[in-house]
Amino acid sequence: MNYVQLESGVILSEVQYAELGTKPGLTEVAAVGGGRDITRGFLPEGLITHPTDTILRQQGGGNSIIYEELARDDQVKTCRQQRELALISKEWGVDPGDNSRKSKKAADRLKQVLDRLSWDDKTQKMLAAILYGYSVSELMWATDGLEITLSDIKVRNRRRFGFLPSGELRMKTFAHYGDGEVLPPGKFWAFSCGADHDDEPYGLGLGHYLYWPVWFKKNGIKFWLLFLEKFGQPTAVGKYPVGSSDSEKTRLLQALSAIQSSTAIRIPDGMQIEFLEAARSGTADYTALVDRMNASISKVYLGHASAADETPGRLGSQSSATDIRKDLIRADADLVCGSFNRTVARWLTFYNDGDSVAPPRVWRKTEEPVDLKACADKDKLIFDMGFKPTLQYVTDKYEGDYVEIQPAPMPVVAEAAPTDIAPVSVDPQFAEATADVDLSPVTAQTELLAQAAAPMLKSWVETLRAKVEKAKSLEALRDDLLASYGELDSQDLAKVMALAFACSDLSGRFDVSEHG
Predict the structure, then answer these.
(1) CA distance to 10, 186, 255, 480, per residue, from 328 (Å)
(2) First-to-final CA distance of the chain
């Protein structure tokens, strides 16, 4: 058998090389279990794995209860509320998977279920995965006699669950703590986030990054309190004579301890108490330490520092923080809604409609509302430039029912042949009424010229109006007008203008001959 060596150094048989370009490999190669993952060691397929989070393993023994302690910190709680409440305050909706009638019905069904179950509350609880790495909820399936539905979505304590090397979710019980209890398919919704690879089903929560800032802050406050106690009240020193008995020394120590809470004390004769003042000068930087740790917590959770870490007077800080906040809200919404759509939404649709119906999609409206005043000012500017938006554009942009205002009808004038132009005469009986009317030959000729040219100009206007109504965009209208400029029929107008120029020339010659 002959062999072929690839550029990467891999040696294949000619048969394998021939099959390489005809079909892809259909089996998973880099599986985690069975001793194939060198970063974890040997993992039995039937046992629950432990998270690879080094903080959990070294500081908490693999138990996420240490992250529950982090959640008690005031700055963590504040940042967590800001991020979670900002998301659930956004409007949500359900879109059908396609335009078919069954897909629309499936979307309406899911919308009714989520309305009844308080979707915002369930979303906020599942968002705990941002701090802990993963969340687990149990789906309480029920039936109303006609369809399969959900009576509730119960978010469970994540510490009760674990994952096999294959990624399968198992529930830890006293009877099955190592291997976990097998769970029925489609019964639990597991949502994980934060990990940078798919080999970690537990995700990687922000607790991994918050642990040390919270720990330093907590211990810094403890030493801060000791500092205040030391410098707020001097240390009492008791002195006893040489040869004092143990009982006398004990009584002296009790007297020293009573100084902090008693207004009067007694000591044995011959003993004395002095106060040792702290000889240290200056101030301790405990406040700076706590502020720095709070700023670190804000950076981890919100993507930017709080006001304590911002430079006063620096332009752009608030704007940048707002943009980062919007990005986080949009990312969190995509993650939790995407996980729900791939699992619960698909299962509910399958149980009722089979696999032939496209499952609906839950979404959050995270985009900021459009500034309609700015849009109106822009549209007016474009209109003043000579371009009119289409009715469809106005309806989509301003979200309402609008009717285009029709222009006033142009007066209909009868066409008059150039050869039929008659001299203008005024009846004597109307001479007084027309005393203020300009009856000069130039005025009469101008009016007749306008009447003769009116039909051609009206035809041009109708042609342009038809092109404006059919235009799909301002750019398309501009190109169409430039291309159609040479197509306008100007022969009749040219005849009228030629006659007008001839009349003007003759009139000028007549005036010269009459008046010199």
Answers:
(1) 43, 29, 59, 44
(2) 119
Give the predicted TM-score (pTM) of the model. 0.64
Which stretch, 42-56, 90-104, 447-461, has highest mean pLDDT?
Answer: 90-104
| Side chain identity, residue 81 | Q
Q: How far apart are CA 390 and CA 468, in angstroms?
A: 8
In the chain, domain spans: 62-208+328-364, 372-405, 415-424+438-516
Would you say 128 and 163 are in contact if contact means Cβ atoms under 8 Å apart? no
440: helix, strand or coil: coil
Among 420, 380, 419, 418, residue whose Cα is nearest residue 397: 380
- 263-272: per-residue pLDDT in tens? 566 666 666 6
Determine which of 198-207, 248-257, 486-495 has the lowest per-residue pLDDT on average. 486-495
Which tokens belong to 2?
Answer: 């002959």
How far is it between the farthest Cα atoms of the chain? Answer: 152
Q: Using a pLDDT cut of 70, give the percent of the chain over it.
A: 72
User: What Å distances lie between residue 353 and 105, 109, 186, 356, CA to CA?
Assistant: 10, 11, 16, 7
Query: Around 440, how many Cα atoms within 13 Å sit in the side-chain half-sphere?
Result: 6
Count of beta carbons in the 10 Å neighbourhood of residue 36: 14
